[in-house]
Amino acid sequence: MSSVKKILLGEQGLVVIFAVAFVIVSLTVPNFLTERNMIGLLQSVVTIGIVACTMMFCLASRDFDLSVGSTVAFCGMIAVMASNVTGSIILGLLAALICGAIVGLVNGLLIAKVRINALIATLATMQIVRGLALIASDGRAVGINDPNFYQLALSTFLGIPTPIWIMVILFLLFGFVLNRTIFGKNTLAIGGNPEASRLAGVNVATMRIWIFTLQGFICAIAGILLSSRITSGQPNAAIGLELLVISACVLGGVSLAGGRASMSGVIVGVLIMGIAQNVMNLLNIPAFYQYLVLGSILLIAVTLDNIRSAAAGRRRG
């Protein structure tokens, strides 16, 4: 029994569980291990993977962001609309990145300065930003005028689509930031004990503002790539993304109580979510039943987080 707990609690154990599940799925699900399906699987998790890079920092600092889905859709809309109006893809991308950062900044200010609970603050901005996307587009998809915009998602390097490379680069970048920089160490310190971090000289409010601003900026990148892949700006895109991202992070060992996170764990969590959806699609499982499976994965993730937190508390005691 103790060995089973170790597997569930340890980061290496998570990788082992993922590897075993991957082998089982490869042997039992037809067409799963084909090159085409593997590329499609990675493409399907690009949005979740990119947003999870910074959601990891929000969760590790004892916060979370429910507005990420709305921000992704809104920034994708802005990228398309600004590109169409100005005739410049570059200006469209810059407008989207700036808007994403502003949404994140507003979240950070509401939470760190106005001291509104993160749940309420990001729930409010989730509704407001989704409303802005619907108002700006009159509730309809906005087509892309310049076909070059599609190349953001369609272009490849070494046979692998560019969005996958961008996701991998962000995984490496934020893994380095978490483990090798003062920013990452302060994030974990704040999550572990905000008051002790403040007494140690960490500006907790400023750190939280930066984390949420970064979250909004990264959501803009995800929104740009998503709008390019679906060939339009969709005001109703990425609905429910926040739950998938949080599930992936918690599955990967990021603690909802703060103070614990690893990029390798998040990557495994993202892949688990992607494989679950991919397998269900290959087996032609109806979408209604897929909701049940994804909800169950979220419950499992939270249960594992509770077990890890209890075990960590016993070790500290």
In short:
It is found in: Cell membrane. The protein has helices at residues 2-9, 11-28, 35-44, 46-60, 68-86, 89-112, 118-137, 151-154, 162-180, 182-192, 194-199, 204-229, 241-251, 263-282, 287-316; strands at residues 142-143, 156-157, 160-161, 232-233.
> Structural class of the secondary structure composition?
mainly alpha
Q: Whole-number average pLDDT?
A: 90
The number of helical runs is 15
Biggest pleated sheet: 2 strands, antiparallel
Subcellular location: Cell membrane
GO molecular function: transmembrane transporter activity
Membrane topology: Multi-pass membrane protein
Keywords: Cell membrane, Membrane, Transmembrane, Transmembrane helix
Write the layout of secondary structure elements.
Elements: H1 2-9, H2 11-28, H3 35-44, H4 46-60, H5 68-86, H6 89-112, H7 118-137, E1 142-143, H8 151-154, E2 156-157, E3 160-161, H9 162-180, H10 182-192, H11 194-199, H12 204-229, E4 232-233, H13 241-251, H14 263-282, H15 287-316
Antiparallel strand pairs: 1-4, 2-3
Membrane topology: Multi-pass membrane protein
Subcellular location: Cell membrane
GO cellular component, one term: plasma membrane
Would you mind describing this structure in some detail?
The protein has 317 residues and is mostly helical. The protein has helices at residues 2-9, 11-28, 35-44, 46-60, 68-86, 89-112, 118-137, 151-154, 162-180, 182-192, 194-199, 204-229, 241-251, 263-282, 287-316, and strands at 142-143, 156-157, 160-161, 232-233. The chain has a single domain, classed as Orthogonal Bundle (ABC transporter involved in vitamin B12 uptake, BtuC). It is 76% helix and 3% strand. The strands form 2 sheets. A two-stranded antiparallel ribbon has the order 1-4. It has a two-stranded antiparallel ribbon with strand order 2-3. Strand 2 (156-157) and strand 3 form a beta hairpin. Helix 14 runs antiparallel to helix 15. The longest helix is centred in the C-terminal third of the chain and has 30 residues, at 287-316. The mean pLDDT is 90.
